[in-house]
Amino acid sequence: MVFGDILRNLIEEKCITQKELGNQLNIAPSTIGNYVRNLREPDYQTLKQIASYFNVSTDYLLDYHCDEVISENHKEDELLRIFRALSDQQKDLYLAQGKLFLSQSFGEHKSNSKE
Hints:
Layout: H1 3-13, H2 18-25, H3 29-36, H4 44-54, H5 58-61, H6 74-85, H7 88-114
Helix pairs in contact: 2-3
């Protein structure tokens, strides 16, 4: 996947417009449009700014995968992608639910192992 496609996906996941992204990053909306259409690529500083905004790595934006780092677990990758698209309030809610789920799972595991 190329940068523009990845950026388009991130914009859609965050439910914002290209214009909103441009305003947030102080980048002309036409420039964002050129990125999304793969007509232009950002410079290094802009790439870092976009990565920071979406809370992803520059490697992710560039679709760079080091063989030792690639996760074999696609479910983890999917969870991370979904989590990054959530609002801060939603993230807090799901983290609390996940912790509750884990505490209940470990509690059941401990009681089953005592039997």
